[in-house]
């Protein structure tokens, strides 16, 4: 890694513990004096949060995969312009729960091979990768059980079934190989505090 890792993303299947770990990392970095913006996708800016409701609620067949790519990318563009880039320009650390790698997986893999379209639109409209991506690797059955424990209206993607979750897990691990310079894989099947310690050690090594 050539520059300090100030734009940090968390990726992984649903229920792997991303949100928990993103929050704990933000707390730990703040405690050591960093100015941190904790954000998430889809969402992270007022406009993108509106798009979040469109993509995560309602019938599973509400949008085609192609339309979803456009919606997630539109949300990301707004989030980047209004939240991420201004924070980075102000010298802050940005921690983001999911980013473009989620589109590469969920829209790129789940309904046929659309990865090429995702990548083309990404380079046209986003053109920015995180400095560091923490992949929380997790057994799909365990992740699904955790995710199902939550009561929420955001369920369009949560009934994927174990087979697709397993495909997503393998896809994320392949992505970690493809972008080995910025990905670090951490085993999510440990106690919350143990995962958090590994995350912090990994981030501290790249932040200086
Ligand atoms: P994600 O953001 O990846 O979907 P969350 O952080 O929301 O995952 O975690 C999903 C659920 O699992 C939450 O109820 C959370 O408290 C719990 N959880 C997170 N990490 C662990 C862990 N290491 N062990 C057990 N439960 C966990
Ligand atoms: P998230 O709120 O992170 O859910 P979870 O905490 O269960 O992981 O994300 C909601 C869903 O949105 C998740 O199932 C993955 C999906 N998603 C996409 O399909 N494409 C994307 O580009 C992003 C950012 C998320």
| CATH T-level fold name | Rossmann fold
| Number of self-contained structural domains | 1
Distance separating the two termini:
11 Å
Q: Structural class of the helix and strand makeup?
A: alpha/beta
The largest beta-sheet arranges its strands as 2-3-1-4-5
**Rg, Å, rounded:** 16 Å
Mean pLDDT: 93
CATH architecture: 3-Layer(aba) Sandwich
Order of helices and strands: EHEHHEHHEHHEH
User: Could you list the spans in which at least 5 consecutive residues all have pLDDT below 50?
Assistant: none
Bound molecule kinds, no repeats? adenosine-5'-diphosphate, thymidine-5'-diphosphate
Task: Give a quick summary of the entry.
The protein has 208 residues and is α/β, with parallel strands linked by helices. The chain contains 8 helices and 5 strands. The structure holds adenosine-5'-diphosphate and thymidine-5'-diphosphate.
List the helices and strands and how they pair.
Blueprint: E1 7-11, H1 18-31, E2 36-40, H2 46-56, H3 65-89, E3 93-97, H4 100-109, H5 115-125, E4 132-137, H6 140-148, H7 162-178, E5 183-187, H8 192-207
Parallel strand pairs: 1-3, 1-4, 2-3, 4-5
Helix pairs in contact: 1-8, 2-3, 3-4, 3-5, 4-5, 4-7
The structure holds adenosine-5'-diphosphate (ADP) and thymidine-5'-diphosphate.
């Amino acid at each position: 890694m050539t520059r300090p890792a100030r734009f940090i993303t968390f990726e992984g299947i649903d229920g792997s513990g991303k949100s928990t770990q993103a929050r704990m990392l933000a707390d730990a970095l703040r405690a050591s004096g960093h100015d941190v913006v904790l954000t998430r996708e889809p969402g992270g800016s007022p406009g993108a949060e509106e798009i979040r409701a469109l993509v995560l609620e309602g019938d599973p067949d509400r949008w085609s995969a192609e339309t979803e790519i456009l919606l997630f990318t539109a949300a990301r563009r707004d989030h980047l312009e209004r939240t991420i880039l201004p924070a980075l320009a102000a010298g802050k650390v940005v921690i983001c729960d999911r980013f473009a790698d989620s589109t590469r997986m969920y829209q790129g893999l789940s309904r046929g091979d659309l990865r090429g379209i995702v990548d083309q639109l990404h380079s046209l409209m986003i053109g920015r990768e995180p400095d560091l991506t923490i992949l929380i690797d997790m057994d799909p059955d365990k992740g699904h059980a955790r995710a199902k424990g939550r009561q929420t209206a955001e369920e369009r993607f949560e009934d994927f079934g174990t087979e697709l979750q397993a495909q997503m897990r393998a896809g994320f691990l392949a992505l970690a190989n493809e972008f080995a310079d910025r990905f670090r894989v951490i085993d999510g099947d440990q106690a919350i505090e143990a995962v958090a310690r590994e995350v912090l050690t990994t981030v501290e090594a790249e932040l200086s």
